Here is the input.
Amino acid sequence: MASSTITNADRPVDFSSILKPREEFAQPQASGSGERLNRWFDQLMLQSGLGISPGIVLMLCLLGGITVGGLIFVLQENFLTTALAAVVGFLLPVFFLMYVRSSRQNQILGQLPAMLEELARAATTGRSVEQCLQLVAADTPSPLGEELQLCVRRMQMGMPMRDAVADLPDRTGLMTLRLFCMTLGVHQQTGGDLVWVLEQLSKTIRDRLQYLGRLRAMTAASRATALLMVVLPPGVLVFFTLRDPEYFSKLMGSSWGRNGTIIAFTLTMIGTIWVLRILRDSQRT
Here is the structure.
């Protein structure tokens, strides 16, 4: 297979340094639990693909907490239930972003095999990898097409292809795209049969998606039970609190009720984190 490559003399001048950096809460050289939380929040914003800044989402979280907490306070006039409702309202935008990110990742995974096959067919025509990627990016629908078009625009501004696609796995949160980026980078440096590699990568991804589909089908009941165990305790507490506004105050007024609630809350949080980690690891691709 013959494929042309762009030499340094033919490459346009690099204007990529004028690109506006993303707004992030995390500091590059900082460490600690707070910075890990900021980094996770920045990744959630980036991988959701909504294109809004973290500051706006933080304002929405504050607005949600004030709105839900104020509504519960008007209905019940209880500071404890108001505080719990404010926490729930504060986290609602975060849960929505997590849902959007998961849906977007599933769409990208479904588009990957067809995109790789089209890229392999384009490479058989003798075009360069950059030209093939530009052609495929224009034909691929959103959301994967948007990510590829961003890489193409970077290359058009003079950025090397290896650098243009380097953060593609971080922008999507998919490890499968890291293999794709490594394939393009290695081919650009050493050459080789790119068509065969892309076809094998597409076949591997299709097999992996089929395996994950069977795994989700077999573990659907277990995952539903795990989620029910996570949702049921706070649901019961909300039910009794709505039925009797003084229920939570009476519960926390006694020593055994307060200690039992703290222990139950701690164990529930540990179990929730454990279940969520298991579900995340089982769906990680």
